[in-house]
């Protein structure tokens, strides 16, 4: 028992001395409608897996200084007569507002991905390999080394209008609410009408399954993730 306590003390002391702290990720909704942020993280790195964010609201979550995960926005969400929760875009298949620790891989959504490493190098990117549903912007907030890290995003207005028609996800009124990427896996994912239509308006976004195109930022930093940085009126019931 004494050995276990000693080991715990050593680990705790190391974490304290090395300055291990949580990262603040501010999520703000500038869309003209409610967005339900969804989270995918194997080690509960974000402390939550989903909640509702009304128009104009923001919320700060504490992310683990060591870990990886993804954040996206779900739209047009509701519960059916049996109480099952679902969303027209970005649905994670849990049947609840929280996506759960191991939710299914969503489709038709704009994705922000992170790999954090306290005090050294963070990796992040915006990925549209699973589709696009709303503009999203990731902006690093601070670096103890005085460096300015790059913002990344796919934050143009109403990009769903640029989606090839056969890849559009339409609402009940035949309006485009998302765009589906025809590449469902890493095999055979090549240039397509989908990627070509997004490359010009979203040059900062990632379009494939490769792991070598993250943006790197040195130091322990915070982030602001914004849905609809520019006003984007689309989803309504």
TrEMBL record:
Highest taxon, organism lineage: Eukaryota
Transmembrane segments: none
Database matches in PROSITE patterns: THAUMATIN_1 (PS00316), THAUMATIN_2 (PS51367)
Signal peptide region: 1-22
Disulfide cysteine pairs (residue numbers): 31-228, 77-87, 92-99, 149-217, 154-202, 163-179
Membrane is among the record's keywords: no
Protein keywords: Disulfide bond, Signal
InterPro entries the record matches: Osmotin/thaumatin-like_sf, Thaumatin, Thaumatin_CS
Stated name of the protein: Thaumatin-like protein
